[in-house]
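Record 1 of the preview.
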Amino acid sequence: MSKKQPDTLEVCRRSLFATKDELAALYTEAMVLRVLRIRDLYAWVIANPDAKDRQFVEEHLYRYRLSKFTAYSDLAIIKQLLPSLSAASRDWHRWRSNEMFLETYSMAKKRKDTRTMERAASAYAKYNRVDIEDEQTVPWEQLLPQPFTATDDPSVLGIKPIPNLQDKIDALLDKYRAETIDIDDVDFEEVDLEENVLFPNQLDESDTLFNDSNQ
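->
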Protein backbone atom coordinates (compact mmCIF):
# COMPACT_ATOMS: atom_id res chain seq x y z
CA MET A 1 0.00 0.00 0.00
CA SER A 2 1.45 3.37 -1.01
CA LYS A 3 2.23 5.86 1.74
CA LYS A 4 0.58 9.26 1.59
CA GLN A 5 2.23 12.49 2.67
CA PRO A 6 -0.65 14.88 3.33
CA ASP A 7 -0.61 18.07 5.36
CA THR A 8 0.48 17.43 8.96
CA LEU A 9 -2.35 19.48 10.43
CA GLU A 10 -4.99 17.50 8.51
CA VAL A 11 -3.37 14.23 9.58
CA CYS A 12 -3.49 15.32 13.22
CA ARG A 13 -7.11 16.38 12.94
CA ARG A 14 -8.08 12.98 11.56
CA SER A 15 -5.71 10.63 13.34
CA LEU A 16 -4.25 12.31 16.41
CA PHE A 17 -5.51 9.55 18.72
CA ALA A 18 -5.07 6.62 16.35
CA THR A 19 -2.79 3.79 17.38
CA LYS A 20 0.73 3.55 16.07
CA ASP A 21 -0.18 0.57 13.89
CA GLU A 22 -3.12 2.43 12.38
CA LEU A 23 -0.89 5.39 11.59
CA ALA A 24 1.81 3.16 10.10
CA ALA A 25 -0.72 1.63 7.74
CA LEU A 26 -1.58 5.05 6.30
CA TYR A 27 1.44 7.33 6.51
CA THR A 28 5.21 7.41 6.19
CA GLU A 29 7.43 6.67 9.16
CA ALA A 30 8.43 10.33 9.46
CA MET A 31 4.78 11.39 9.59
CA VAL A 32 3.95 8.72 12.16
CA LEU A 33 6.78 9.88 14.42
CA ARG A 34 5.67 13.48 14.15
CA VAL A 35 2.03 12.70 14.92
CA LEU A 36 3.07 10.69 17.98
CA ARG A 37 5.31 13.56 19.09
CA ILE A 38 2.56 16.14 18.61
CA ARG A 39 0.10 13.93 20.49
CA ASP A 40 2.51 13.66 23.40
CA LEU A 41 3.03 17.42 23.55
CA TYR A 42 -0.66 18.07 22.96
CA ALA A 43 -1.35 16.19 26.19
CA TRP A 44 1.34 18.25 27.93
CA VAL A 45 -0.27 21.52 26.80
CA ILE A 46 -3.66 20.40 28.13
CA ALA A 47 -2.08 19.40 31.44
CA ASN A 48 -0.30 22.78 31.63
CA PRO A 49 -2.80 25.34 30.34
CA ASP A 50 -0.89 28.29 31.84
CA ALA A 51 2.44 27.38 30.25
CA LYS A 52 4.12 29.96 28.02
CA ASP A 53 5.47 29.29 24.55
CA ARG A 54 9.00 29.41 25.94
CA GLN A 55 8.16 26.67 28.45
CA PHE A 56 6.68 24.56 25.68
CA VAL A 57 9.85 24.91 23.61
CA GLU A 58 11.98 23.98 26.61
CA GLU A 59 9.86 20.90 27.25
CA HIS A 60 10.03 20.00 23.55
CA LEU A 61 13.84 20.28 23.49
CA TYR A 62 14.13 18.29 26.72
CA ARG A 63 11.98 15.43 25.48
CA TYR A 64 13.03 15.12 21.85
CA ARG A 65 16.37 16.94 21.47
CA LEU A 66 15.25 18.57 18.22
CA SER A 67 15.69 22.09 16.88
CA LYS A 68 13.77 25.12 18.08
CA PHE A 69 12.32 25.47 14.59
CA THR A 70 10.73 22.02 14.93
CA ALA A 71 9.47 22.90 18.40
CA TYR A 72 7.77 26.09 17.20
CA SER A 73 6.39 24.27 14.17
CA ASP A 74 4.81 21.64 16.41
CA LEU A 75 3.51 24.37 18.71
CA ALA A 76 1.78 26.10 15.79
CA ILE A 77 -0.03 22.88 14.90
CA ILE A 78 -1.07 22.24 18.51
CA LYS A 79 -2.49 25.76 18.81
CA GLN A 80 -4.66 25.09 15.77
CA LEU A 81 -5.83 21.80 17.26
CA LEU A 82 -6.81 23.29 20.62
CA PRO A 83 -10.03 25.01 19.38
CA SER A 84 -11.27 21.53 18.44
CA LEU A 85 -10.65 20.30 21.96
CA SER A 86 -14.31 20.49 22.97
CA ALA A 87 -15.26 18.25 20.06
CA ALA A 88 -12.34 15.88 20.49
CA SER A 89 -12.11 15.91 24.27
CA ARG A 90 -14.20 12.77 24.63
CA ASP A 91 -11.92 10.83 22.29
CA TRP A 92 -8.86 12.20 24.02
CA HIS A 93 -10.12 11.31 27.49
CA ARG A 94 -11.05 7.84 26.28
CA TRP A 95 -7.56 7.33 24.90
CA ARG A 96 -5.97 8.80 28.03
CA SER A 97 -8.09 6.59 30.32
CA ASN A 98 -7.10 3.48 28.42
CA GLU A 99 -3.45 4.47 28.70
CA MET A 100 -3.84 4.84 32.46
CA PHE A 101 -5.59 1.46 32.77
CA LEU A 102 -2.83 -0.27 30.83
CA GLU A 103 -0.09 1.53 32.73
CA THR A 104 -1.66 0.56 36.06
CA TYR A 105 -1.97 -3.05 34.92
CA SER A 106 1.66 -3.10 33.76
CA MET A 107 2.95 -1.68 37.06
CA ALA A 108 0.83 -4.13 39.08
CA LYS A 109 2.09 -7.00 36.96
CA LYS A 110 5.70 -6.06 37.71
CA ARG A 111 4.89 -6.06 41.43
CA LYS A 112 2.90 -9.29 41.04
CA ASP A 113 -0.08 -7.51 42.57
CA THR A 114 -2.85 -9.71 41.23
CA ARG A 115 -5.62 -7.80 43.01
CA THR A 116 -4.68 -4.51 41.36
CA MET A 117 -4.22 -6.31 38.03
CA GLU A 118 -7.74 -7.69 38.29
CA ARG A 119 -9.21 -4.30 39.19
CA ALA A 120 -7.38 -2.56 36.33
CA ALA A 121 -8.49 -5.22 33.86
CA SER A 122 -12.10 -5.00 35.08
CA ALA A 123 -12.08 -1.20 34.82
CA TYR A 124 -10.62 -1.41 31.31
CA ALA A 125 -13.24 -3.93 30.20
CA LYS A 126 -16.11 -2.00 31.76
CA TYR A 127 -14.97 1.34 30.34
CA ASN A 128 -14.62 -0.08 26.82
CA ARG A 129 -17.79 -2.19 27.19
CA VAL A 130 -16.07 -5.29 25.84
CA ASP A 131 -18.74 -7.48 27.43
CA ILE A 132 -21.48 -5.93 25.29
CA GLU A 133 -22.04 -7.00 21.72
CA ASP A 134 -21.58 -4.35 19.08
CA GLU A 135 -24.82 -2.70 18.06
CA GLN A 136 -25.99 -3.62 14.60
CA THR A 137 -26.33 -0.65 12.31
CA VAL A 138 -29.86 -0.36 10.96
CA PRO A 139 -29.76 -0.30 7.12
CA TRP A 140 -32.15 2.61 6.79
CA GLU A 141 -31.52 2.92 3.06
CA GLN A 142 -32.86 -0.62 2.57
CA LEU A 143 -36.12 -0.02 4.43
CA LEU A 144 -39.01 0.51 2.03
CA PRO A 145 -42.47 1.83 2.93
CA GLN A 146 -45.26 -0.72 2.74
CA PRO A 147 -47.59 -0.19 -0.24
CA PHE A 148 -51.09 0.95 0.74
CA THR A 149 -54.16 0.78 -1.50
CA ALA A 150 -57.60 1.91 -0.34
CA THR A 151 -60.38 -0.63 -0.88
CA ASP A 152 -63.96 -1.32 0.20
CA ASP A 153 -63.50 -5.08 -0.15
CA PRO A 154 -63.91 -6.63 3.34
CA SER A 155 -62.29 -9.86 2.19
CA VAL A 156 -58.85 -8.28 2.75
CA LEU A 157 -59.69 -8.44 6.48
CA GLY A 158 -60.93 -12.00 6.26
CA ILE A 159 -64.61 -10.96 6.29
CA LYS A 160 -66.94 -12.72 3.87
CA PRO A 161 -68.54 -10.09 1.61
CA ILE A 162 -72.35 -9.82 1.52
CA PRO A 163 -73.73 -10.17 -2.01
CA ASN A 164 -75.87 -7.29 -3.32
CA LEU A 165 -75.06 -5.27 -0.23
CA GLN A 166 -76.26 -1.95 -1.61
CA ASP A 167 -79.64 -3.43 -2.59
CA LYS A 168 -80.10 -4.74 0.96
CA ILE A 169 -79.18 -1.34 2.40
CA ASP A 170 -81.76 0.38 0.19
CA ALA A 171 -84.42 -2.18 1.17
CA LEU A 172 -83.80 -1.66 4.87
CA LEU A 173 -83.97 2.11 4.48
CA ASP A 174 -87.32 1.83 2.71
CA LYS A 175 -88.59 -0.53 5.41
CA TYR A 176 -87.70 1.68 8.36
CA ARG A 177 -88.95 4.80 6.64
CA ALA A 178 -92.32 3.14 6.11
CA GLU A 179 -92.50 2.11 9.77
CA THR A 180 -91.68 5.56 11.06
CA ILE A 181 -94.68 7.60 12.29
CA ASP A 182 -94.94 10.75 10.28
CA ILE A 183 -95.12 14.00 12.23
CA ASP A 184 -97.12 16.72 10.53
CA ASP A 185 -96.73 20.39 11.24
CA VAL A 186 -99.93 22.09 12.48
CA ASP A 187 -101.00 25.70 12.35
CA PHE A 188 -101.34 27.62 15.59
CA GLU A 189 -101.88 31.12 16.79
CA GLU A 190 -100.62 32.87 19.86
CA VAL A 191 -103.17 33.40 22.63
CA ASP A 192 -103.21 36.58 24.67
CA LEU A 193 -103.25 35.20 28.19
CA GLU A 194 -105.08 37.25 30.77
CA GLU A 195 -102.55 36.90 33.54
CA ASN A 196 -104.51 39.02 36.00
CA VAL A 197 -107.38 36.57 35.72
CA LEU A 198 -105.23 33.44 35.83
CA PHE A 199 -102.93 34.59 38.66
CA PRO A 200 -104.80 37.22 40.68
CA ASN A 201 -103.08 36.54 44.00
CA GLN A 202 -99.56 36.75 42.60
CA LEU A 203 -100.30 40.03 40.87
CA ASP A 204 -101.70 41.54 44.09
CA GLU A 205 -98.60 40.54 46.02
CA SER A 206 -96.27 42.00 43.41
CA ASP A 207 -98.23 45.26 43.40
CA THR A 208 -98.01 45.43 47.19
CA LEU A 209 -94.26 44.89 47.17
CA PHE A 210 -93.83 47.51 44.48
CA ASN A 211 -95.88 50.07 46.38
CA ASP A 212 -94.04 49.36 49.66
CA SER A 213 -90.68 49.91 48.01
CA ASN A 214 -91.78 53.30 46.71
CA GLN A 215 -92.87 54.51 50.13
